[in-house]
What we know:
two-stranded antiparallel sheet; 50% helix; alpha+beta; 12 strands
Amino acid sequence: MFKQISRFYRKLFRSQLQPKHVAVRESSTDNLTIIPRKQHSISRQSISENALKVLYRLNKQGYEAYLVGGCVRDLLLGKRPKDFDVTTNATPEQIQKVFRNCRLVGRRFKLAHILFGKEIIEVATFRGNHENEKNPNTSKRSQNGMLLRDNVYGTIEEDAKRRDFTINSLYYSIKDFTVRDYCHGLSDLQNGIVRLIGDPETRYREDPVRMLRAIRFAAKLDLVIEKSSAEPIKHLAPLLRHIPAARLFDESLKLFQTGKGYACYQLLREYHLFGQLFPIIEKLFTPTLNKGTSSNMERIIEQVLKNTDYRIENNKGVNPAFLFSAFLWYPLNELTQNLMQESGLTYHDAFSVACSDILHEQCKTIAIPRRITSVINDIWHLQIRLSKRFGKRAFSVYEHNKFRAAYDLLELRASIEKGELLEQAKWWDEFQHSTSEVQHAMVKNLPHKPKQRKRKSVRNHRKKNGVDKA
C-alpha cells in the first residue's frame, strides 16, 4: 500500500516537473534550474511556522536564507517532513546575534539551533571548498580522508556541491517561493535515483555515514542507489569503524525505527554494512541470504523489523530497547552456552555474565545509552522468570513494569522456535487476560518440574577470570 502511494506521488511529481514546463533562469551557475511557484507543489501551509519565522527574520536582517535538503525533497514528494533545516550566508555568530533563542552546537560541523519549545530549527552556514584551506580550526582531515572539521564557509553554489546527495541539494526560497536545483536533484528524484554529488569514494571517505544514509534514502523513498554511488560501498564499509559509537546509535534508530527497517536491513546486508554495526551478530549469520536457509537469529531480526514497521505504519509506539533485545538474543544464548561449558557455571549465572558481556561488546560499535541497556537487561532476565510460573512467581513477573515487553519477546521467540515456547506464550497470553480467580487456578494446574542441581557460582567464575569487583 505504501509503495503504491509512493508511486502515485512520484507520478504526480513527474507530471508537475516535466522539462517543457520547467522555467530555467539565467545564472552564473550553469546547472542551476529554478522552478517558479506555479510549477511545484510546495506551499507555506506545509512548512513549520517556526521555520518560516527563521527564514523571514534572516531575510529581514539582510541575509540569504533557504529551506534545504530533506524537507524540500519530502515536500516535493507530498510527504510531511520530520524537521526543517535552513541554510544561510550568515555565520553561526551572526545567527546568534539575530536570535536570542539560539544555541551554537558542533565542533566538526558548527551549527546554530534555534529553539522554539520542543521544536528545533537547525541553521547551517553555506559550506565552501576545502581545497585551499589550511586552517586546522576550520578544515581538517584524517589519514583515511574523513573530514574532522568542516567549517569552511562559502556561497550557495559551493554549498550545493558540498551536499551529500543530489536529491538533498534542493533549496526553497521564501522570497519568491521558488525551488533552486544546482545538481539535477529534481531529475534524480523523478527517476527514483540516489546519487552522490562528486566522486563517490572521496565523498564516502569524507564521511562514511553517507553509506548508511544512501541505504536509508533508498529504502525510505523506494529509490535505487545509482551504480557509481553503490560500487565503492562494500570495500569502504570498514570505514564505519572510525565513526563515534554514539553517532552510530543515532543512525541505527533512523535506519530501523522510521518505518522502513526491514528494507534497510536487507540493503545493509547486501552492501556488507550490517556487520560493521553488529559484528557479534554477523558472526552467527548463515553464509547466504537465500530463503529457507536463514538461522533463528536471522528470522527473529527479520520478524522484529517487520513488526516494527507495522507498528510505525499504524502510529503505534516503538521501543529501541525491545529491538536491540531481539537483535542480540541469540548471540546472548550462544555466549551463555559457551560459558556453561567452559566454566561450569549454572545457566542463570552464565546468563547474567553473558548479558553484561554482550552489551559491553555491542556498545563498542553502537553506544546504546545506559537508560536503554538497563531495559534490555530487564527484558532478557524476565525471559528466565517467564518460564518459572509456580507459586507466586507468575504474579510477581506479571506485576513487573517490563512484563509486556518481555512477553512480546517471548512471543517472538515462540514464533521462531516453536515447541515448548509456544505453550508458554499461549499460557501467558491467557493469564494476562484472565480474572484473578482464573489466574490462581492456572498456576495451580501447572505440571511440577524437579529442581535442577546447583553448579559453580558466578562469583567463583569472576574471581577465576579476574573480574570480581567485590
